[in-house]
Write a structure and sequence with these properties.
- The protein is α+β, with helices and mostly antiparallel strands.
- 17% of the residues lie in helices and 41% in strands.
- The protein has 2 helices and 6 strands; from the N terminus they run αββαββββ.
- A 6-stranded antiparallel sheet has the order 1-2-4-5-6-3.
- It is elongated, with a radius of gyration of 15 Å.
C-alpha cells in the first residue's frame, strides 16, 4: 500500500506488542480512548503481581491511541506513571486516556487505570509529538 499524507503509519491501530500482551481496544477517538486487558501469569513480576513495565505499556498505548487518533502517527515525548495499588493475576484492568490540551505538534494526555472492582491502580500524565 502506498502511503500518502492521510494514511496512518499503522492503519490497523494495534502493535504486535500490545496484541501479544492481550491489550484490546474498547473505544478509540481523538478525545478519549479506552484499552483493556486481563492479567496473565506471564505478566507477573518476581513479587507475583503485574510487572510495572506492562502497566506502563498499557498506559502509554492508551495515551498514544488518543494522542495520534486521526493523524499519521506520533511518539511519546514523556510519560509519568503513579502506581497506586498492586495488579493481580486474573484482574481485568481498563485504562482510559483523555486529551487535556493539543497544540500544533503536541498532545497532552492524562490516563487512569482501574481494576474490575473500579479501584484506581495507576494514573499517568503524558506528552506526545504528533505527526500530521
Amino acid at each position: 500500500m502506498q502511503k500518502n499524507d492521510t494514511t496512518p503509519i499503522n492503519p490497523i491501530g494495534t502493535s504486535t506488542l500490545t496484541q501479544r500482551l492481550g491489550i484490546e481496544p474498547v473505544h478509540k477517538s481523538n478525545e478519549k480512548s479506552i484499552l483493556q486487558m486481563t492479567v496473565r501469569e506471564d505478566h507477573q513480576n518476581n513479587g507475583g503481581v503485574m510487572h510495572g513495565g506492562i502497566t506502563a505499556t498499557l498506559m502509554d498505548s492508551t495515551c498514544g491511541t488518543t494522542a495520534v487518533y486521526g493523524f499519521k502517527g506520533g511518539a511519546t515525548a514523556s510519560l509519568t506513571i503513579n502506581y497506586l495499588a498492586p495488579i493481580n493475576i486474573g484482574d481485568k484492568i481498563t485504562c482510559t486516556a483523555v486529551i487535556k490540551k493539543r497544540t500544533h505538534t503536541m498532545a497532552f494526555v492524562n490516563a487512569e487505570t482501574v481494576n474490575q472492582h473500579g479501584d484506581i491502580v495507576a494514573t499517568a500524565t503524558s506528552v506526545f509529538r504528533v505527526i500530521y
